[in-house]
Amino acid sequence: MKLVKTLAAGAILSVIAASASAYDADWKRGRVYYRSVCTSCHAVAPIGSINPSTKTKAEWAAYIKADKHAKGKDTVKQYVSKAYRASIKSGNKAAEKFADTPDQELLDDVAAFLNKGAKDGDAPASCS
């Protein structure tokens, strides 16, 4: 009986811990941020906007994992950071809207959007 109670308590703690640390990325929120922040910046840059469908899911995953933006001059994480959002929020409503969103959650959201909109994703997307 004591063993059953111990196993049950352990199982409950495992479920609570997993649910507390697990985040289910929101591709729709990622789409809003990507289109409003990433695309708006890229549109005025010499390289122009980058549609999610220009890369495969594996290519986007590798890009995010490498964490190198602008040919390694800076990081991808920089552009989803609270500090970056604070620096552009006066001119960007999405940055202002997501000002308090944890950095990793927003990065996961953008990654979910890129995954969904990739060349081989569920809904290849453009950023028009």
Provide a concise account of the structure shown:
The chain is an all-alpha fold and 128 residues long. The chain has helices spanning 2-21, 27-44, 57-66, 82-88, 93-97, 103-117.
Layout of helices and strands, plus pairs?
Elements: H1 2-21, H2 27-44, H3 57-66, H4 82-88, H5 93-97, H6 103-117
Structure in words:
The chain has 128 residues and is mostly helical. It has one domain (27-117). 59% of the residues lie in helices and 0% in strands. It is built from 6 helices and no strands. It has helices spanning 2-21, 27-44, 57-66, 82-88, 93-97, 103-117. α2 crosses α6 (103-117) and α3 runs antiparallel to α6. The longest helix has 20 residues, at 2-21. The chain is globular, with a radius of gyration of 18 Å. Mean pLDDT is 84; it is low at 6-11 and 15-20.
Strand fraction:
under 5%
The shape is globular
Please state the average pLDDT score: 84
Task: Find the structural class using helix and strand composition.
Answer: mainly alpha
Q: Spell the H/E element sequence.
A: HHHHHH
Radius of gyration: 18 Å
Ends apart, CA distance between termini: 63 Å
Low-confidence stretches: 6-11, 15-20
Number of strands: 0
Helix count, DSSP H or I runs of 4 or more residues: 6
Number of domains: 1
Largest beta-sheet details? none
Could you estimate the helical fraction of the residues in percent?
55-70%
Oligomer: single chain
